[in-house]
Amino acid sequence: MTLLLWLSSWSNISVLGVFLTVFTVLVDFMKRRKKWSCYPPGPVSLPFVGTMPYVNYNNPILSFEKFRKKFGNVFSLQNCWTNVVVLNGYNTVKEALVNKSEDFADRPYMPIYEHLGYGHKSEGIVLAKYGHVWKELRKFTLITLRNFGMGKKSLEERVTEEAGFLCSAISSEGGRPFDLHLLVNNAVSNVICTITYGERFEYGDETFKKLLTLFENSLNEEIGLLPELLQVVPILLRIPGLPQMIFRCQKEYIDFTEMLIEKHKETWNPAYTRDFTDAFLKEMAKGNEAEVNGFNRTNLSFVTSDLLAAGSQTTSTTLRWAFLFMLLYPEIQSKVHKEIDKVIGRNRPPTMADQANMPYTNAVIHEVQRCGDIIPMGLPHMTYRDTKLQGFFIPKGTTIITNLTSVLKDETVWKKPNEFYPEHFLNENGEFVRPEAFLPFSAGRRACLGEQLAKMELFIFFTTLMQKFTFVIPEDQPRPREDGHFAFINSPHPYQLQAVPR
């Protein structure tokens, strides 16, 4: 009898609990209903998988363009249970990243990196959540990079010296057809390696070649439906050995940067700061205060690998696009040569001071960035709080994708959005102008922190090589493809060229 009464009482409590839960959910739903009625439109979401079957994850921009035509510049997707909003067009992206920068300053958590040590206390800087630790690490990184020459004459001299090494390596090809890929990668990576680790690598260094190849392969590992599914259903990552099997190159890349740090620590002297790694180790030595601000061993690995990745791949890929366009448009290459001969000559190395007197060359470099469209989707953002954008309600915690392709090729801004046309950056008097919609480095609080270094490298490397060589398509080679290969970074397809000394 007592048992029956207990069961009856427990049953009543259970019913009451269910009732209260349902009532609370309904009240919460009614409160949110008005706001969510203004949520951006999008394709019909299917059970469990959401809208994932509608998206081509090998090249999402193609899918985004279709959705944009149907739903407008702000539309929503559903990756399983993850809410995603895609922003398109210059005005939309500017309103979000510039006018409401803090609302869109957060980053979604990335469980696919947990097997590398990524966690709530160690997120690096590029993918770190918006908050105190990110602010401290970003401030420290900017100050330290500035101290080691970013934006100063000393760094310009390093870039100029490396451009000279690159010219020598190209000359050693003896006019034979070759692929510029690894040489340019090595040259650009050496600049950031000097700042980060205090050393550069010879162009024939097999270990360094492996590092560059590992990073490119790791980008390919993160493209496609499976990585996206693991990101939104992270419980699958608990399957033993699965992350290591799928993201093998990713792990090897981090292991390589770990090796550089360990090698570095062997010669570390707290009294003498040689480079960024030394500065970070010195900060870590401050103990608990430093730990609270994110200065720990795992973050050292992530921040330095962030710098190496951000400071090498995007710039080297842009330069590969630049020389591809010079092959495809010899008349533009000829105009660049004439301006270089007029302003600099053929003997003196180019300097950043020359840029102001070279509007056409400057316009060509900017058009390479626009047309090459290196990072089509930027990095994912997340709303830091509930916000409104162009009349739509977007709740806190929504993943935001900025379709930078739609900005760099916005038909309302650019005269010939789908053509290589340097005149986009020249006024009627032939003077250089920069339209506001030129956002290859993104914008707002999460804008690329290496923008100044990238601008310097692009100008000095491109101008130095153009000063010394004429680039032509080898006679036995077909005309290179002008479209790109997407693997988070939009890269040109492999091509060969000949460098004819001028």
UniProtKB/TrEMBL annotation:
List the cofactors. Answer: heme
Does the record carry Nucleus as a key word? Answer: no
Residues that bind heme = C448
Which keywords does UniProt give here? Heme, Iron, Membrane, Metal-binding, Monooxygenase, Oxidoreductase, Transmembrane, Transmembrane helix
For this protein, the record's Pfam families field holds: p450 (PF00067)
Q: Which residues are listed as membrane-spanning?
A: 6-27
According to its UniProt entry, the protein's GO biological process terms are: alkaloid catabolic process; arachidonate metabolic process; coumarin metabolic process; estrogen metabolic process; isoquinoline alkaloid metabolic process; monoterpenoid metabolic process; negative regulation of organofluorine metabolic process; oxidative demethylation
Subcellular location, record wording:
Membrane
Per the similarity annotation, which family is this?
Belongs to the cytochrome P450 family.
Q: What is this protein called?
A: Cytochrome P450 family 2 subfamily D member 6/pseudo
